[in-house]
Amino acid sequence: MLIALIVNDSLYISTSLATIFILVLLVLLVYMFIQLRKSRAKQEKMEQLFQKYESSYNKLHLENLESKLNPHLFKNILNSIQSHAYQTYFAMDKLGNVLDYILYESRDRYVTPREEIDFALNLVEINKIKISPLFELKVKTKIEEEDALFEQHLLAPLVSVDLIENAFKHADLQSPNAFISIVFEFRDGVFSMTVTNKISSKNPLKKEKGGVGSATFEERLKIIYKEDFKLERHTENDIYIANLKINLREYKTKMLAAG
To answer: How much helix, strand and coil, in percent to the nearest 5, is found in the chain?
Structure first.
């Protein structure tokens, strides 16, 4: 009988200790869960604050980049016309279209692919006055105009400038086999342009020390499109090839998802 009581007491004590242990463990788990929730909430708040500051910085930085872009473009256009005064009458009509675009449309955050391509074609016409009528200049457009995104404001203005101006500035304009090729495409919601030219040995392709260079252009694309663009530049023998692709469909999807 005594032994049975001792066994029962031992079982009771063991059960009580187990219960206390479970309760303590449960309290600890609840405490850790609450602390984890607080930590996550704090982390989310910090991330939101960081994103807010990052967005403000990117906006200011982008405005600074764009403020450098327009005067630089104006200077190059006026230099082209001034150095070829005999063709100025023809260029004035194209110049008017280009200036309207720079002064008005380019002040918007986005333009349509149609508007940017029309602007780029006018810019090419202005640059043509630098070269001989016999120079081989090929300009092609491959456009899916039925794509709804072709008329939607999703493309950053003046994205075509850097590739076009570099081609005319650094191309070999003297040798008989020199050429510049410019191809604009819009297909499946993707804007792309490919510029190819023979490089002049007298004027090696390199970024200018002043003005708006290729690094500034790419930095602007990174701020706006992040991973939704691809810019490739390479040289094959004496041929320079630059290709830009911007996936506007993917970019729009992410914009809508972000609210």
So the answer is: 60, 20, 20
Pairing of strands 190-198, 229-236: unpaired
Joined together, the tokens standing for residue 7 give 């066994």
Q: What are the tens digits of pLDDT across the range 122-170?
A: 999 888 877 887 889 999 999 999 999 999 999 999 999 999 988 988 8
Selecting from 3.30.565.10, 3.40.50.150, 3.50.50.60, 3.40.50.700, what CATH number does the domain 65-258 have?
3.30.565.10
Quick: pLDDT tens for 199-242. 877 655 544 443 345 778 888 899 999 999 999 999 988 899 99
Closest by Cα among 252, 55, 227 to 150: 252
DSSP 129: G
Residue 94 to residue 68: CA distance in whole angstroms? 22
Report field, pTM of the whole predicted structure over 0.70: no
Mean pLDDT (whole number) for 67-91: 57
